[in-house]
């Protein structure tokens, strides 16, 4: 047995006579209820069955799947799902489990069921990023009140352990910044655009045909999925409550082939990043107010940066901590098996607590830092303009940057041939500045008489 | 407070009157004893001081450093180390702590002190890879007997969370294979050789002048350090006891500039890998007996593989699991601050258990798989030969491979000019085969009348 049964966590396996009687071989048993039986749910059910002995050896108690709540029990299920376990009465099911696995997704009925499960003393493992990012504090409070575990490794970046490293491994350190490629669909799309030169529409279609994107890709391409994950990551990294609604969100729908080309020209690659960083408090640039900046937007990442090598539908989370330095966690961010792996890891961890007593980490929000508005976020811009090819234009453009307190790091001017006779392209990279100043600069540039058009505006991260 | 004090773990902070009295502000206190005050130890001491309030908020109890055991108290210490805490009586110190941090390293006196600490009911956090790889099971047993935690994230790959992911995150999955770049010194040396064409001696000197290598680099370049880490990783990944002595070990001392060049020619890079894999049981090639293969040796890794991008003194651990698929953990594998970060993460985790009751994961060795000899390890060879440039030589060489059951995947022949008139270079890449067969093939090749010399023999991984 992995754990000596010395603890007194409520609902301990060995104290669970009812379930104990249910075993053939006797020995402690933990009753597991599964809510939802889609791609992830059916994989979890299958693994609980197939790996039963190994999991029992690792937990120190047998995990008995006592029911699977579904909406349509008649529907045909994946192999390995015992039809006799299916029920439509989720409310009843959660009251007879030591451990509830929620993979329904969405806010309701998931929230009600998770709260009800904890009220009845069950520990909960969920993959529900939307629910955690929407109403996390309420769930944490319910877990504390009930003295049970609430685990959710699968909610962020699928099988990649990122919740546990942030919650536990780095808990003795000070996380300064997290840059995440946390949405596989958009990473696949941007990677396609980068490698094949395809435009957004074609790349999205390709992703759909390969099953990397939903028929309605809104949640991914508009950055909602990444924003929910950013909120969860920021909450864990900064011991501060951050909700999805607090996250500045820009998807990839405005990204053009020209943007991707501009990034390539600059020796960079375009990624949709979830960015969580501390501001002020001596860590940010002087004068920045203390708080956290949490945002999701496309950004240019230098090809040398470890995140630039994250291809296809893979995910990676890059962490900068004061002591640990730079860390990166890389792997498959979605899919039935990877997500089920993360769920089962939490199931075993939570089950071990039931057997051995005690609980894992619960919410830590003591720092309570304010979430700063996007305008205050310190970033760099990479702007491509088309201007009149005549003397004085560069000075005129440079003045616009100066007027808005944005300082230019490099500028490259190239005459445009063909139909664009008399025009030139200007590619300007700025130094760090507040986003508001840079945005205002771009606005002024667009209005400047020297400028024919602003063809690409990209933020730069990871330099 | 992060954890409600509902547990009954022995030596609970709130039950610790003595230490309780010691606080100014009152509230629960955990007494921390530090063994060793070198680069890591002094950093841990400094952080415990500097981050006192943050750590208290995360733990739910104040961490009070009650003593630092050193051999020479007179020696000048890093800033932030309170001289009044120094003591030479480590045996006494460990008896008055709730939590002992061991960063002395080596087998004795570390082992005796850790065992004594646990007998007295203290939880232990150690960075001592040598001790764990030498005598882990005895330490785990002592921790179980005492009902305390034994944590050691810092023992493998410094600040990179790898112990926790293997122990907890992937505990619901089946790990098939781990490839690790776990020694920063040798990775720096091989990276130098690859990028500058330097030979081994110069690269090692460079590493020494930059502080990446010890004056006596034996432990690193001969692979002892990596072997100890491989033993720990394999034990965690396969729920099986593996000792450093069980690990097949080849360092980088035999690596030549020619090997590095051969790798580059083949579109690969040379890395010293810690390789832990399941064999047989349906997972390995047919007929392979069930068990684990644990080895450390230089290997060619294709440039496209995520591990190939691990530059300089960085570390990375690449994990292949049945459900999770491919994962990689990347970061700084050594250094005072990164290692201290891992130690402090464990300190907080262990301290939370003292406050909240219960324990973390303990040893899981139920699988008890046999460690297979190197000869059975299934690998691929990349061999460079110089042969007589005459008809029939290729057939003769191919026959040698066939005779030993090693099948050739590709062969490239190029005439050698200059002094080597009448000679040609043959570069042969094999398919997978047991290491013994490939080694015997190379021996036979060296003895073959067709072969002038075997100039490079490299194993290939990650293809």
UniProtKB/TrEMBL annotation, chains A, B:
Transmembrane segments: none
Enzymatic class: oxidoreductase
KW Cytoplasm (keyword) present: no
A Pfam family this chain is assigned to: NAD_binding_3
Domain of life: Bacteria
Segments for region (Disordered): 1-22
Catalysed reactions, as listed in the record: L-homoserine + NADP(+) = L-aspartate 4-semialdehyde + NADPH + H(+); L-homoserine + NAD(+) = L-aspartate 4-semialdehyde + NADH + H(+)
E.C. code: 1.1.1.3
Entry cofactors: a metal cation
Domain ACT: start-end pairs: 382-459
A GO molecular-function descriptor: homoserine dehydrogenase activity
Role according to the record: Catalyzes the conversion of L-aspartate-beta-semialdehyde (L-Asa) to L-homoserine (L-Hse), the third step in the biosynthesis of threonine and methionine from aspartate.
NCBIfam families xrefs: PRK06349.1 (NF004976)
The protein, known as: Homoserine dehydrogenase
Source organism: Pseudokineococcus basanitobsidens
């Amino acid at each position: 047995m992995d754990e000596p049964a010395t603890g007194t966590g409520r609902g301990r396996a060995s104290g669970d006579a009812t379930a104990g009687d249910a075993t053939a071989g006797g020995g402690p048993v933990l009753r597991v209820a599964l809510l939802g039986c889609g791609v992830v749910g059916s994989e979890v059910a299958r693994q609980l069955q197939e790996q039963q002995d190994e999991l029992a050896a690792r937990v120190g108690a047998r995990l008995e799947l006592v029911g699977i709540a579904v909406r349509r029990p008649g529907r045909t299920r994946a192999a390995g799902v015992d039809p006799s376990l299916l029920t439509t009465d989720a409310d009843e099911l959660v009251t007879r489990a030591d451990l509830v696995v929620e993979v329904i997704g969405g806010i309701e009925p998931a929230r009600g069921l998770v709260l009800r499960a904890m009220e009845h003393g069950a520990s909960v493992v969920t993959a529900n990023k939307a629910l955690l990012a929407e109403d996390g504090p309420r769930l944490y409070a319910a877990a504390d009140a009930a003295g049970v575990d609430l685990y959710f490794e699968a909610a962020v970046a699928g099988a990649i352990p990122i919740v546990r490293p942030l919650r536990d491994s780095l808990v003795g350190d000070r996380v300064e910044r997290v840059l995440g490629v946390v949405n596989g669909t958009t990473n696949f799309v941007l990677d396609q655009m980068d490698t094949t030169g395809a435009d957004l529409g074609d790349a999205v279609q390709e992703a759909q045909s390969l099953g990397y994107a939903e028929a309605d890709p809104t949640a991914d391409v508009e950055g909602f999925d990444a924003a929910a994950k950013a909120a969860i990551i920021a909450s864990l990294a900064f011991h501060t409550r951050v909700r999805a609604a607090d996250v500045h969100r820009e998807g990839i729908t405005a990204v053009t082939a020209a943007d991707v080309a501009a990034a390539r020209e600059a020796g960079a690659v375009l990624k949709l990043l979830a960015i969580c960083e501390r501001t002020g408090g001596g860590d940010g640039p002087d004068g920045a107010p203390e708080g956290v900046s949490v945002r999701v937007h496309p950004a240019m990442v230098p090809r040398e940066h470890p995140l630039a090598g994250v291809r296809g539908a893979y995910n990676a989370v890059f962490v900068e901590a004061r002591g640990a330095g730079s860390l990166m966690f890389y792997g498959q961010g979605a899919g039935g098996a990877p997500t089920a792996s993360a769920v089962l890891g939490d199931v075993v961890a939570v089950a071990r607590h039931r057997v051995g007593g005690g609980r894992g980490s619960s919410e830590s929000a003591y720092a309570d830092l304010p979430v700063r508005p996007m305008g205050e976020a310190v970033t760099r811009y990479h702007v491509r303009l088309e201007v009149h090819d005549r003397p004085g234009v560069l000075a005129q453009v440079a003045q616009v940057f100066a007027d808005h307190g944005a300082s230019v790091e490099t500028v490259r001017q190239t005459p445009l041939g063909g139909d664009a006779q008399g025009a030139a392209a200007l590619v300007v990279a700025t130094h760090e500045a507040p986003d508001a100043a840079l945005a205002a600069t771009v606005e002024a540039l667009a209005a400047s008489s020297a400028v024919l058009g602003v063809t690409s505006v990209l933020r730069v991260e990871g330099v």
